[in-house]
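FAQ: What does a ligand-bound record look like?

Like this one, built around pyridoxal-5'-phosphate:
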Amino acid sequence: MHYISTRDSAATPATFCDILLAGLAPDGGLYLPVEYPQLDDVTLTRWRQVLSEGGYPALAAEVLKLFVDDIPAEDIEAMTARAYTYPKFSREEIVPVTHLENNIYLGHLSEGPTAAFKDMAMQLLGELFEYELARRHDSLTIVGATSGDTGSSAEYAMRGRDNIRVFMLTPKDRMTPFQQAQMFGLDDPNIFNISLDGVFDDCQDVVKAISADAEFKRANRIGAVNSINWARLLAQVVYYVSSWIRVTETNDQRVSFCVPTGNFGDICAGHIARQMGLPIDRLIVATNENDVLDEFFRTGDYRVRSSADTFVTSSPSMDISRASNFERFIFDALGRDAERTRELFGEKVKAGGFDLSDDPVFADLPEKYGFISGKSMHADRVATIRDIHQRLGVLIDPHTADGVKVAQGLAEQIDTPIICLETALPVKFAETISEAIGHEPEVPQRFAEIMKADRHVADLPNDAEAVKRFISDNTEA
Ligand SMILES: *Cc1c(COP(=O)(O)O)cnc(C)c1O
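The answer part, i.e. the structure of the complex:
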């Protein structure tokens, strides 16, 4: 399988390992496979058996092998077996699916080491990076900024790995106590927490300044693990397959997915699974107050927001002004027209957005690709958390509540089971849970220890040069 960029149809297709460590394509586009492998009835039936006999890691290996032909099959199997294990994931199913009520189910993506869905992709990425760097006799220094889930998930995935270092910038005193404990409690020689004297935007600006210094980047082998990485999406395709298997008995049964969406990474994997022929009915995009995607799917107008118009909400991992993976879907929807995709995302998005409302492509989206959308406000999420807790005895986090609220609103018009993807555990968002149910969520046993661990973090000024010095001082040549 080879990979192409969404913006250049003439570039030479690359292999999986070529693009594994890369971010954007050289032309600024995102990578996608030349074509989506097609799942026939025989394969789906075989995969049911693979999941029941070999479990989630065996199914993950089957999915990966369709997209990766430059890593031997047995190495892929060994990597998925290490990435998705119990009790690193707190449930043996890795991604259990439970019934909520009526035709609504929960797909549990938050059983990993940091209690957020980012672990599903990061745990595999850690294996793949270490493997490929060893093959190339190369090393990688990951530099990132985080206000929550991505940073801790990356650190837990990369800790203790050969040839990889992680420097993660966090805004001083702005993270929740649980998030701080989770990250700063790590005591691995290849993990460096930096508490920057500034806000999250300052952290991002410092990372950008470092990325802009080509010389420093080369000398220190700087890379990223951002949400546009193709391998992250690929890892996420697996739980669409496993969740479909868990709620159906025969291959003619379809399911829908409702996905709390930020950068369009999670649901983009659902789109890919559907394009492969997995029997998916609807893909429901659920947003919070930052509704740039809900607006697009309702009106055809993709209007990116400025940071001043981006709200800070109680589902912070969905607080985005533009959706970085959206370009992949639009490329497909436009019949893979790289020229038009480049015009829309390389030019129009920079100038504020684009409008497809009069384009026949837009009218086709619900039927051809299954997409519909909805949104929630803070009060909706709090009410949903309270209601689900009171009536059903199930506690969900604010991101998952967004999905459940949107699914409930659409449930009557959808006649397939709707699997709402749970993207974080309540313990990460104690304040909103308190508001909803009157007390803080229980800290699961597996996290009890970290609250007491010693803290490992360097306090640095809001100054890119100081951060660069810290990185070079802690990176061997
Ligand atoms: C990252 C994240 C999301 C959004 O996922 P995207 O892939 O950006 O759409 C939703 N919920 C939680 C808890 C997250 O960490």
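Follow-up question: can I read anything off the structure? Yes, for example: The longest helix spans residues 41-67.
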